[in-house]
Each structure stands twice: as C-alpha cells, then as structure tokens.
Amino acid sequence: MPASEGREGIILVADDNEANRELVTALLSAEGYQVVCAANGQQALARVEGDSIDLALLDVVMPRPTGFEVCQAMKFKPETRLIPVILLTSLNSDADRIHGIMCGADDFLNKPVNKQELLARVHSLLRLKQFTDELDNAETVLFSLALTIEAKDPYTEGHCDRLSKYSVALGEKLGLPQDLRVALRRGGLIHDIGKLAVPEHILLKPGPLTPEERKIMEQHTVIGEGICAPLRSFRHVLAIIRHHHEKQDGSGYPDGLKGAQVPLTARILQITDIYDALTTDRPYRKALPQEKAFAIMREEVKRGWWDGSILDEFEAVVHGYEPVHPAGSGS
Ligand SMILES: [Fe+2]
Q1: 104: CA distance to ligand 1 center in Å?
Q2: Of 37, 111, 128, 306, which is least packed with CB atoms within 10 Å of its CB?
Q3: Is there a contact between 311 and 298 (Cβ–Cβ < 8 Å)?
Q4: Å from CA of 224 to ligand 1 middle
Q5: What is the pTM of this model?
C-alpha cells in the first residue's frame, strides 16, 4: 500500500542502532503506517508522552533506560499503559522473555526482523489497540453524561470527583484489590448516571418529594445499572450503582439488602457520599464542619443506616488526609 493512503496507527520505533531503526521504519512506512523514531530510551519516553502513539516497537538493548525499562515505565502510567509494546531482541533467551513479560510487554520479535512476522504482529496489536480505544471512548461518553447531571445542580459541582478520590483512599485503607479500587473511582463519578432518566422537576425539586415522585427518583439506581451493564469493564461498578442507597437495616432501595448483603464497595461509596454532602454548601444550609458531619453520621449508624466499621476507617482516612476541598473541612 502506498504511504500516501495511510493506514491507521502511529508506530514508535526505538532503537539506538540507526541501520536497524531505518530498516524497520522502511518496512512499516512501505505499508502505509506513520512512524516516529527514537534513538534511545529517553527519546522513546518523550515520544510516548508527547505523540499519540498507537504501538511501540522497542529495542531491548539500548543505553539506559533500556527497552525493558521504557516498557515498564509505559505500563506503569495510566496515560500510556494501554499502548501495546513489542520488544525487539536478538537475545532470544527465555530469561529475557520472562523479564519482558514482567515489564508488561505484549509481544516479542527476534532480530534480524522477519518482515512478514513484523507486519502480522503490528497488524494484530493495532487492531487490539483500536478495540481498547473504542472501549475508552464508550467510557468517556458515560463519564461525560454523568457530569451533565452534576452540572444541572450548582451545589453538587465537584461532588463526583471528590467522592471518587475519597472512595479510592478508603478502598486503599481497607486493602481492596486493584480492580475494586478502579471500580470505586469509576463508581464515584458515575453512580448517579440513572438520574438522566429522572425528570428535572423531580430531580431539582427544592421541597420534599411526593411518594410517587420518590418512586421515580429511586429508579435511578436500577436505570443506571442498566445503562452501564453492557460495558464489561464496568462489571465491578454495577453493584455500586445499584446498591448505593441500600441501608444496613434493610430499609434502603432498590432491593432492601441488609448488613453485609450490601456490597462492600457500595457501603464505602455511601459513607463518602454522605460525608461530602454534609461538608459542602447546600441551598438550605452552609457546609458543616468535619466533626459535626461525623457526629451526624455516627447517629445514622446507630439508627441502622450505615456500616459503622467503615465509617471508623473513613474517619481515620480523613484525619490523615489532605482535604480535597477547603469548604467545611472544619479544621
Ligand atoms: Fe444516588
């Protein structure tokens, strides 16, 4: 394919050997891929941060940072971890492959490079990257939609973002695994997405809701779960969305779950949600000081609403934590 037709995908070729670099670049350019080059590991890192790279071909043996180290650094950073990495090596030893896998490499190629093998692997990993990007786009749309709900009410500005941060900090304190901490981050942003289906005159009603209006409002948990259910990457978030209004005594909604039946991630989000609501300004009152907010929440624990042990852990987090927002920190 002539280069002018342009295949989708920008490929980084990092090799300190100029002849190798030019050879791989020529093979890829002849197929219509756009190639950017780096002559060492440092340049490679700058390229992946500055350019929209879709795939990185890294020579393993480069002056430090080596290809292994560049790969590891890329896979560590959230912004670059989804870029597929192929390690180019002439060493071909099991130890190097194992080291490469430990560094997060997606594939390997032996030098001298076999043209057909190179193109087959590049093609397959770029397809994978395309799927990841599409998924990423779907998530971005959901997060944007969730923010439109927040934008309707000036008093809740920044609420979801703070909730996300508090919940992840609490999840870390409780030793939750990475996938549940990711779910908490997402859940903080998106737990009320079902409110998209709640009419504004109910959503923004200043006074108390009628029983019929309350029924409609409560549907936001189930509707939100339905909106996010098709996304496989959101499977751990669904429990948060559905159950963030359950109460420990079973008087919550939508399922009237009790005690430990309420998923742990939902119990975490409830605590951070109420704390943030109490410590920020509302139309009917100013932000409460930190200690007053905790006193109210302890009363609610006694009433059978929230999980007291999680509230204790959250207090410890907040007391050792830089406040996310100055208003109502009370200190
Ligand atoms: Fe909610």
Answers
A1: 38
A2: 128
A3: yes
A4: 9
A5: 0.66
